[in-house]
Give the backbone structure.
Amino acid sequence: MTKRYTTLVGGKWTGNDRPGIEVVNPYDNSIIGIVPEASADDVEQAIEAARLGFVEMAALPAYRRAEILARTSDFILRDREEIAEIIAREAGKSWKYALSEAERSAETFRFASHEAKNAHGELVPMDASPVSAGRFGFYIRTPIGVIGAITPFNFPLNLVAHKVAPALAAGNSLVLKPATKTPLSSIKLAEILAEAGLPAGGLNIVIGSGKTVGNKLVEDDRLAMITFTGSPPVGIEIKARSGLKRVTLELGSNSPTIIDEDGDVDAAVSRCVIGSFANSGQVCISVQRIFVHQRRYHEFMDKFVAATRRLKVGDPMDRESDIGPMISRVELDRSVAWLEEAKALGAKIETGGRVIGNCLEPTILSGVTPEMKVVCSEVFAPIVSVLPYETFEQALDMADDSVYGLQAGVYTRDINKAFQAVRRLDVGGIVINDVPTFRVDHMPYGGNKQSGLGREGVRYALEEMTNIKMVCINL
């Protein structure tokens, strides 16, 4: 029989009596689990449990929070193969990337353990002003309160970790709404956190629609903050409806990579294959637009196409598979429609483009133009466009011609061009001599323009999740 799961609310596992949501393996459409669908009353109970849990979380000394997070990291590593199987089955992520996500999540919690002991304030030089000479001043960081975390399907554990770990490190409590397509990773994480000693109410999970669950979290005044990863339209709506809550938004991108005339083409090919097609391109910082100097264009394209054709499309549980399915047939059909539109407008498919079961072959396009959806919008599929350019300034203009601004990659051996890109590109992160898909979990991560608000990366998320309390002493 299909396993029926429960969720964690107020330290208790509940939901056996709830209507269920089927969790489906996107590769073969098999049902891999049934999770409880939250009602409005369930969301209310989770918020109240988090409100009560916050009292205990805020009172925990830093060393205790650090111990819980460190044990969580250890337990994730202990169970990483089980976790990788969950990710591969519910998200369709190829095994090697699913295992990597499990290991990265452990590192995220390890970083959070360190930050729990280092979240401190600073002295403020009061005598810098004549009116406060003789006073002593400092500020401390205090937890913000109950945080609502809304997470996507594409990194069902590590993007949850990036919200849960710093929130707990700071002494907050959470209500987590994982993606309904990939909730099993979050349930496993809740089991691990409970084993690690997390107080009741520290983490509460509710699974359901945006209308029932998401809207309630966004609008309820008992929550102090919403942290969301997803699409720009939903992010804009969250910001409009959240009132005076603090909001962090990690939204879309169509990340560019520039390969200049002096760039290392072989290195760029190797990394662009991974950056473009890992997780079937369903990555916020997936390589979507590649700009290649016209003198290196044909060399790059020949090698890039050849390397892409060596990728293996198939069952995510096959340890040799590189490319798994799209998350749903709806997303697969949308991606194919965008490809057809591009072809009708003059684009050429250099390789790929075929649908194999629920998978889309890794696809390289040439002859694209800026108005095509595959260029100007977030494709979120294993589709990448390659465009030639004449001058580095032209490449920067083309790369920056986007409503998004998450990360960009630049291949060049010229330090002046590297810093020209740093100054010129309106993005949250620039990666020199690598693709924009590069991310480690302690660096500040987030975007400009329609790519979002605020920054993640454990230390930077923790700062977003705390208040500053200023103390002035009149000596």
